[in-house]
Amino acid sequence: MEIKADFPDKLQCLFQPKRYKILYGGRGGAKSWGVARALLILGAKSPIRVLCARELQNSIRDSVIKLLGDQVRLLGLEEFYEVQASAIKGKNGTEFGFEGLRHNVTRIKSWEGADYCWIEEAQTVSKSSWATLIPTVRKEKSEIWATFNPDLETDETYTRFVLNTPPDADCVKIGWQDNPWFPEVLAKERDYLKTTDPDAYLNIWEGFCRQALEGAIYAKQIRQAQEENRVTKVHYDASKPVNTFWDLGWADNTSIWFAQSIGSEFRVIDFYQNNQQPVQHYLTILQNKGYVYGTDYLPHDAVAKSMVGRSVEEILRSMGRTVSILPKAGISEGIEAARTIFNRCWFDEGRCQDGLQALRHYRYDVDPDTGLFSKKPLHDIHSHAADAFRYLAIAIQEDSKPFKMAVGQDFGGSWMGR
């Protein structure tokens, strides 16, 4: 089948075999447009399986299926491809499927025979998601393609592929300058932003990393931790108990921080989160990590009965764990507590990677009426890890009040020393 299609020069790499093809840069470079077009052409020439993925996909509307469908029409391939509600199939057996990466291990592993995997908006992909995906896409000569606009230099995808480009990879920065079909309407938007907000312009249109997210709640604290080398390799001390700090969710994430107290330091040695899993799943994770545990600190809503008739608190206590229910506190109060204890925290840069990424991206929401940052944090995929970290700080704060009583637990004594 002969198909005529144009591509920017920098996207010719899509037709040369490489294990990784990483396309990053600012808006208007036709990255996603080019990848969709290239995969459809490859699929029309020979039967292939293509997994189109992103970090979170709550519904098929979050996927690139519409973009691919549009390119099917632009390439004149309507007779060859059938664009279904949740898949695209070619007459020769080519198949496009769409999945979210985060905590979707079973469905992702069913794609081990994929020829190509395309990750869109790859700047949000976590370390744990990459750890699942890369060994799954293991068919001989299979390829992993990623398209993204950079956000922070410390984000896992940027660090993994741009700062530390692996062998057998094409890592290409592409922007509006490389797109011969860059439209005039976008040129006007670009020029306007350049004059009104030069910093935002450099990130959005030129593809440079942000120095810090606008409205980032812990920007100062994390920058200081990095400057003081407190984001590093932190060893587990088996002579000290590990306490855990939970934020509970079902459709949203349940997030857990693991920390020890060593002298005046709080050593945050691990982090885990998942969703749509029963409490027993998290207990298994804790057991498998092999730590000697002290107290599990839970938010106030852990006392509520679930559909199975027992609360999270009751389930953990029935398993012989020591549980403490934290008092209900305002979000602003918790954020200030977290900022106060941040300079005493050391984070393991490997095991806490996903949690740290969430803290870096935790930011205030924007008031739609004024366009200014509000006092309320934005609720998104980063919120739950940040909430669990607030509970860590509140637990420390409560420990400084030796006569303070919380529901079901006396806070007297050292919170980390038990």
Number of helices: 13
CATH topology of the largest domain: Rossmann fold
Assembly state:
single chain
Provide the number of structural domains.
2
Largest sheet: 8 strands, mixed
Strand percent estimate? 15-25%
How far apart lie the N and C ends?
70 Å
Query: What's the mean pLDDT score?
Result: 89
Widest β-sheet, arrangement of strands: 3-4-5-2-6-7-1-8
Q: Give the overall shape, derived from the CA principal axes.
A: globular
Q: Which CATH architecture of the largest domain is right?
A: 3-Layer(aba) Sandwich
Unreliable runs: 402-418
Q: Structural class per helix/strand content?
A: alpha/beta
Let me know the CATH homologous superfamily of the largest domain. Answer: P-loop containing nucleotide triphosphate hydrolases
Total DSSP E strands: 19
Fraction of residues in helices?
25-40%
State the CATH class of the largest domain.
Answer: Alpha Beta
Summarize this, please?
The chain is of the alpha/beta class and 418 residues long. The chain has helices at 31-45, 65-74, 105-109, 127-136, 156-163, 184-196, 198-204, 219-227, 279-289, 312-318, 331-341, 353-361, 383-399, and strands at residues 20-24, 49-54, 81-83, 88-90, 95-100, 116-120, 143-148, 169-173, 231-232, 242-247, 254-262, 265-274, 293-298, 322-325, 345-348, 364-366, 373-377, 405-406, 409-410.
